[in-house]
Amino acid sequence: MSFMDKLLNGAPVEWKPLGELIKTITAPSKVKRDAYRDTGKLPIVDQGVEYIAGYTDENLTPIETGKYVIFGDHSEHIKYVDFPFIQGADGLKVLRPISANAKYVYYAFQNFYKKELSYKRHWSTARETPIPVPCPSNQTKSLEIQAEIVRILDTFTELTAELTAELTAELTARKKQYNYYRDHLLSFEDGEVEWKPLGELGEFIRGKRFTKRDYVDHDGIDVIHYGEIYTHYGVSAERALSQVRSELADSLSYAHPEDVVIAGVGETVEDVGKAVAWLGNKNVAIHDDSYAFRHSLNPKFVSYCMQTETFISEKAKHVSRGKVKRLLMDGMSKVRIPIPHPNNPKKSIAEQNRIVNILDKFDALTNSISEDLPSEIELRQQQYEYYRDLLLSFQKPVKVAEV
After folding, report:
1. pTM for the complete prediction?
2. Which one of 106, 292, 343, 354 is CB 3.0 to 4.6 Å from 259, fit for a cystine?
């Protein structure tokens, strides 16, 4: 016998529309989005993805303490809330189960609701979601079965959340460890070194404009857009992510192999000045909000230097602080990086290469963890959903299955 067979012990299961199992609660007070605060005495629940969207200190009447299922009529997010709160948005459906365990309804609603794309039909569709009700003729027995299913799913939810938190903390710790070692290695506390401004080490070549309308899927000119530098690229790249029309060839500006391409614009100070060493075997076009730094150093050494806290703090002094952050290149050219053995070019390059080899290994390890841990988290989430489906795998009558 399966677990569910043992749990039901011969009791029948009836599938009922969600609308028959709940009562819609009308909020006594609501709060507008511009009144949300980071702290306050009353939490705000709206239809966004966050369980608590903000707080308010306004003298408002909350929805009383209870156990509710929350449905975002516009966003289709489903939540379970068991504390008093202020409603923070129109289109929010606050549902109080009238003949079933609220947490059980929440889990079943999550499992069986099929999202609709029609903006005006969300709730009218959602209220028809079939919910399995075990042993419907004996409410006491029915609630006992529902409570046991909830207990198991709560345990899985807690374990999944704990594991996700542990894996996320592990990833954060490894990144901090890598950043610390990189910054320490490039601080050159010991050894022969001279800190030189970028303007003395090379020149900056500004890119030329291209737009979204110029992009093509293939047979075009390889390009690097400034936004890709801080969203997709790492320390270095050998292949471009994007291409534009071949007809633009003569109107574009190019980074050469071993140039370092620098983002000149970004939404944050950290994004501006983010750099990627171009290691491709041919020139790559760059956007007019980026620069190619042409030099005679190891390009990855330069890129690593531009990641350090020391460089970022110096770079920040030369960023215009408008809505869009923009790097002022006259100032950027004055930012210094360490050059080992400055009077011996051959020895200097050898030391740069040695440092790059060390940091490449750390970077590869960190990237591996960055890729593996999210996959592990996703795997655990899939495992949780599998068991949730299994625990709610009551056989549907044919007429319900066709809804």
Report:
1. 0.65
2. 292
